[in-house]
């Protein structure tokens, strides 16, 4: 367990709380145009959400005030004290560099854009080959076999055998 | 009831159902052995595949897979010191030291068989709880179910994270998402913003896939780690481990009981349960000093507890629609997909499906352990697969899984939005489970509210049962603050070092 220390307010927490507050206010305002039975539950819910968000922001204010007035030699606690398990998702997200994030998000974006544009049967082998070769540093043979098998199995099982509708692309 | 109980066994033993269950078990096997891919994540990924299945088949597939991950998760914990599942972490404490001193087979034998025994005890309890729960559930009306829904949400918020207000905010957001679409009362589109796609509401499948699996896939893409970096050399002595489970049968029974008890409490989860069972086994052992250095009782306690808690978490899920764990919360989505309503129906008209779940848990565990013993050497090789080789396969599952929810490309965008929300939630320590649970329960809560209002006006608010449940909700919501304040009062405060004030919401872990 962490020792007693004033933790600084994290900007991300404040931003998320403000965004949620905006969502609840918007939800409340939109609900005002609806009939009573339609707006009752959303209205109650949005009101509760606004109340909790305001309470949370107040908590951030109190936290920031306490941190500013009391903190001294314990600042390093926030980042350094929680040594995570290097397999945990929190640890990986917290320690990955900007380059790794850009690469991962870029690959994910490329996959889903290709899925929408080219369809699944073209995207899967192409993406698999490119990803394994470039990001996975795999050999040509292994990557090609994986790509062909992945595309082939997907086409045969989902397209032919089960006839499940799949993303077909825009062409 | 007995007739239904045995009839449900026949339902499960139908060739098609058995075949589907075996597929689920096979997937659960691989997922359980591979660290990083949790049972809940895989449940989420597999939800789209049950659309065309009968309820019993759907649960044979999902439940068979889920319970097996808990069993096989112990294999990597023992062999590599890396938990295959988050709920297998306590198995590492003694399982891995046993491996290091050349007793991997004994540890595996003990872990696998105690897992099965825990699962059987849990399934027995689940079956036994039906006649006890049925009169209770049938005595409840819409007001009580509304309060129970809110109580379940409050439990999950209060117990699943360190920050209660964050949990409530996520739950409120989830309920708003559940309200998107045509209002069932008046037929008015709500929060649809003129988009025809949103008139049907937001499907649970892309949300679950994005929220849980999306973040996990991104983690694999970021870390690029292979799952295990070393191989297990010596796997022998399995029989001795099997004998240990019978020699220390009281440890198995007590740890299973702890698992069932904690599994029933929504939000506590297996991660907590296994450590409590482990600690209890250590306290009651004649040789507590051996724990952490390779005590077989430690392996038995963690293994038995791990599986028993799954059955425990199903009890409130089935009876009240309040999931006892993350996996059960995802499984609740399967109820909706297959057209089942958790609650009274599961104990009356759909009792056969409830009993089928009991049989599925029993059969899946027996099959899993039998196959584990046969294929253990081959299974451990799976852990050598590099993470990058899994990424294309998982991305396909994300995309195709989300798309098949309603064969609409917009489902993929919903999944991506949910994945982004999941990543932000993990990175900034906002709990995801209250959000998911609120999406699932939001529609039910509104329906119970209208039924209560239509039947009783507002007078239902003053009935004793509603007031009692309301008081319980307040207690559950406030208790973490009270506990934190009491803890602060007890802790000595060193000079110039403040008490932990994790803002107004600060609650210890």
Characterise this structure.
The complex is a heterodimer of chains A (171) and B (509). Chain A has helices spanning 11-31, 36-70, 77-80, 89-95, 98-118, 120-135, 140-161. Chain A is an all-alpha fold and 171 residues long. Chain A has 2 domains: 11-82; 98-161, no CATH class. Residues 75-84 of chain A have low confidence and may be disordered. Chain B has 509 residues and is mainly α. Chain B has 21 helices and 2 strands. A two-stranded antiparallel ribbon of chain B has the order 1-2. Residues 493-509 of chain B have low confidence and may be disordered. At the A-B interface, helix 1, helix 2, helix 4, helix 5 and helix 6 of A face helix 8, helix 10, helix 18, helix 19 and helix 20 of B.
Give the rounded overall mean pLDDT of chain B.
79
Rg of chain A computed from alpha carbons, rounded to a whole number of angstroms: 25 Å
In total, the number of strands of chain B is: 2
Classify the secondary structure makeup of chain B into a structural class: mainly alpha
The main β sheet of chain A shows up as: none
What order do the SSEs of chain B take from the amino end to the carboxyl end, as H and E? HHHHHHHHEEHHHHHHHHHHHHH
Report how far apart the termini of chain A are.
56 Å
Mean pLDDT of chain A: 81
Number of helical stretches of at least 4 residues of chain B: 21
Q: Which strand order spans the largest sheet of chain B, edge to edge or round the barrel? A: 1-2
The H/E string of chain A reads: HHHHHHH
Give the terminus-to-terminus CA distance of chain B.
42 Å
Instruction: Report the portion of residues of chain A in β strands.
Output: under 5%
Assign an overall shape of chain B.
Answer: globular
Number of strands of chain A: 0
Shape category of chain A: flat
Low-confidence stretches of chain B: 493-509
Q: Which regions of chain A contain 5 or more consecutive residues with pLDDT less than 50?
A: 75-84
Radius of gyration of chain B, CA atoms, in whole angstroms: 23 Å
Structural class of chain A: mainly alpha
Figure out the total of helices of chain A. Answer: 7
């Amino acid at each position: 367990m962490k020792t007693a220390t004033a933790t600084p307010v994290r900007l991300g927490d404040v931003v998320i709380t403000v965004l949620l507050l905006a969502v609840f206010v918007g939800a409340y305002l939109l609900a005002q145009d609806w009939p009573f039975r339609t707006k009752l539950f959303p209205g109650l819910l949005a009101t509760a959400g606004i109340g909790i968000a305001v309470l949370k922001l107040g908590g951030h204010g109190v936290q920031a005030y306490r941190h500013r007035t009391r903190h001294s030699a314990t600042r390093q606690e926030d980042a350094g004290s929680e040594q995570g398990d290097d397999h945990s998702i929190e640890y990986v997200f917290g320690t990955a560099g900007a380059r790794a994030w850009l690469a991962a998000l870029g690959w994910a974006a490329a996959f889903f854009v290709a899925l929408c544009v080219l369809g699944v049967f073209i995207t899967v082998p192409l993406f698999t080959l490119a990803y394994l070769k470039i990001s996975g540093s795999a050999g040509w043979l292994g990557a090609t076999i994986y790509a062909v098998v992945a595309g082939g199995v997907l086409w045969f099982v989902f397209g032919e055998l089960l006839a499940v509708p799949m993303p077909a692309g825009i062409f | 009831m007995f007739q239904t109980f045995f009839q449900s066994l026949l339902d499960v033993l139908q060739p098609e159902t058995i075949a589907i269950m075996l597929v689920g078990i096979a997937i659960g096997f691989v997922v359980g052995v591979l660290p990083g891919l949790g049972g809940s994540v895989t449940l989420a990924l597999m939800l789209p595949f049950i659309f065309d299945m009968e309820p019993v088949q759907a649960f044979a597939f999902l439940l068979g897979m889920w319970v097996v991950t808990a069993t096989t998760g112990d294999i990597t914990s023992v062999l590599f010191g890396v938990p295959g599942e988050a709920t297998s972490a306590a198995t590492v404490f003694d399982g891995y030291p046993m491996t290091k001193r050349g007793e991997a087979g004994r540890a595996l034998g003990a872990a696998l068989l105690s897992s099965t025994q825990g699962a059987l005890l849990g399934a027995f309890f689940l079956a036994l709880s039906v006649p006890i729960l049925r009169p209770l559930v049938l005595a409840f009306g819409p007001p009580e179910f509304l309060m129970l829904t809110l109580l379940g949400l409050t439990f999950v918020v209060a117990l699943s994270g360190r920050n209660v207000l964050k949990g409530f905010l996520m739950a409120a957001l989830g309920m708003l998402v559940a309200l998107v679409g045509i209002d069932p009362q008046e037929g008015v589109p709500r929060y649809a913003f003129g988009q025809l796609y949103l008139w049907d509401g937001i499907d649970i499948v892309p949300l679950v896939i994005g929220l849980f699996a999306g973040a996990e896939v991104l983690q694999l893409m970021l870390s690029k780690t292979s799952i295990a970096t070393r191989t297990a050399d010596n796997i022998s002595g399995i029989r001795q481990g099997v004998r240990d489970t019978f020699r220390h049968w009281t440890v198995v029974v007590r740890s299973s009981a702890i698992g069932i008890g904690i599994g029933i409490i929504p939000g506590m989860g297996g991660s907590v349960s296994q450590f409590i069972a482990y600690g209890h086994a250590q306290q009651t052992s004649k040789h507590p000093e051996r724990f952490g250095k390779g005590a077989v009782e430690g392996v038995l306690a963690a293994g038995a507890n791990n599986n028993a808690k799954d059955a425990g978490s199903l009890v409130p899920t089935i009876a009240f629609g309040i999931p006892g764990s993350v996996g059960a919360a995802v499984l609740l989505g399967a109820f909706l997909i297959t057209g089942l309503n958790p609650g009274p129906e599961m104990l009356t008209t759909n009792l056969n499906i409830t009993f089928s779940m009991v049989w599925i848990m029993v059969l899946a565990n027996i099959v899993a352990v039998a196959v584990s013993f046969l294929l253990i050497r081959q299974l451990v090789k799976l852990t050598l697969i590099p993470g990058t080789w899994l990424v294309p396969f998982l991305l396909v599952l994300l995309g195709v899984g989300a798309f098949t929810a309603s064969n609409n490309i917009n489902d993929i965008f919903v999944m991506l939005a949910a994945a982004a929300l999941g990543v932000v939630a993990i990175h900034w320590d906002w709990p995801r489970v209250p959000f998911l649970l609120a999406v699932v329960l939001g529609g039910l809560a509104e329906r119970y509210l209208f039924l209560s209002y239509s039947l009783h006006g507002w007078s239902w608010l003053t009935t004793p049962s509603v007031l009692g449940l309301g008081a319980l909700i307040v207690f559950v919501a406030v208790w973490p603050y009270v506990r934190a304040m009491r803890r602060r009062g007890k802790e000595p405060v060193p000079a110039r070092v403040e008490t932990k004030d994790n803002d107004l919401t600060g609650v210890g872990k």
